[in-house]
Design goal:
Radius of gyration: 20 Å
Number of helices: 16
Distance between the termini: 13 Å
Strand content: 5-15%
Order of helices and strands: EHEHEHEHEHEHEHHEHHEHEHEHEHEHH
Number of strands: 13
Helix content: 40-55%
Largest sheet: 7 strands, parallel
Oligomer: single chain
Structural class: alpha/beta
Length: 368
């Protein structure tokens, strides 16, 4: 049974690594003599070494069998180049099923290319919705879900979102592979604890910021206002820069402000150390919101909505948008009192095994 996995951006490497490890364990058990072959395809959406190659090493993933080298560019151009490359690879590999992750242009291209060739698609993290169609990620999610044969949902809310759109066939609540990843990588991350000393940070005494969404980086005034606001939180703030954010800041001549400290991108396990020891996290990343929740660190979301509504309902996340007063009010509320989560909606840390069970059953039914 051959699975073709499409990845291209940092969060997808993290999620795919969990399933890749589960495939290796599945093959080691030799269940009923069945063996899975995974063909990993890297679109090249993230091309900075700190955002891709180092992840394959750290997450113990095999190097991709195919690297499309697409790089950055306008959405249409980037997605079109991915489609061209993925179609060629899919013709060559002839997989039984295509695995896609999350909500990036790589996700969309994988779903489109596979569906055009009549290949079944399994979407990991299906059913998430921000209900903001101005976000490219929201369009990618919706289209990918409606093209997928298997919709592998992390939460009950995601299942409900799909049901509201009339999507009920092939829908499964499996839990969140990011929770699996967190549990695995926290054990490995101790070797990176020196990053705190290297940056001169004390546990619980700093804020951590990530900004990379187009609605924040592509508007110079928004980005300038965000950085000025975050520099006035009243505690040191560490800001690992995404390549897109670096380019945007250079183009708009935006520098550090107040207590904010700009640093290069960090590895996944280094990021986990920074997240676990932060007093407060401020981000526009869905993945970082969820990691903050799972680590019990309060989070302020620098967007007007979130697809991870469970983190808000549990009391550990506040959606503040980009207005300075709203950001500062949310941050100060968390700095005054650190809440504890009221629920844990993301499964039991074994989402990957559940995914493989469903994928195996689907492929065997197709062959019968």
């Amino acid at each position: 049974m051959k699975l073709l996995t499409v990845v291209g951006a940092r969060p997808q490497f993290i999620k795919a690594a969990v399933v890749s490890r589960a495939i290796a364990a599945f093959n080691a058990r030799a269940v009923s003599g069945l063996r899975m072959e995974e063909v990993l395809v890297h679109t090249g959406q993230h091309y900075d070494d700190n955002m891709s190659a180092v992840f394959f090493q750290e997450l113990r993933m095999s190097e991709p069998a195919h690297h499309l080298g697409v790089g950055s560019g306008p959405h249409g151009q980037q997605t079109g180049r991915m489609l061209e490359g993925l179609e060629r690879v899919m013709h060559q590999e002839r997989p039984d099923l295509v695995l896609i992750y999350g909500d990036t242009n790589s996700t969309l291209a994988g779903a489109l290319a596979a569906s055009k060739l009549g290949l079944p698609v399994a979407h990991v993290e299906a059913g998430l919705r921000s209900y903001n169609r101005t976000m490219p990620e929201e369009i990618n999610r919706v289209v990918a879900d409606h093209l997928s044969a298997l919709l592998l949902c992390p939460t009950a809310c995601a299942v409900k979102n799909l049901s509201c759109e009339g999507v009920v066939a092939g829908v499964h609540q499996v839990g969140d592979v990011m929770y699996d990843s967190l549990l695995f990588n926290l054990q490995q991350a101790a070797q990176h604890a020196g990053i705190l000393d290297r940056l001169g940070l004390q546990s619980g005494q700093y804020g951590l910021v990530t900004i990379h969404r187009a609605e924040n980086t592509d508007r110079p005034e928004t980005l300038r206002t965000l950085i000025a606001t975050l520099g006035n939180l009243g505690l040191p703030v560490v800001f690992p820069l995404h390549p897109r954010t670096t380019v945007a800041m250079q183009a708009a001549r935006i520098g550090a402000h107040g207590n904010i400290r700009l640093i290069p991108p960090v590895s996944y396990q280094e990021m986990l150390i920074l997240e676990r020891n932060a007093r407060l996290i401020l981000t526009d990343s869905g993945g970082v919101q969820k990691e903050a929740f799972l680590l019990g660190v309060p989070c302020v979301t620098l967007r007007s909505e979130t697809e991870w509504v469970e983190t808000v309902e549990a009391g550990l996340n506040r959606v503040a948008g980009t207005e300075p007063d709203a950001i500062l009010d949310a941050a100060r509320a968390f700095l005054d009192k650190v809440p504890s989560a009221s629920t844990q909606p993301y499964g039991n840390g074994h989402a990957a095994e559940a995914i493989l069970e469903i994928v195996t059953e689907h492929c065997l039914e197709k062959r019968a």
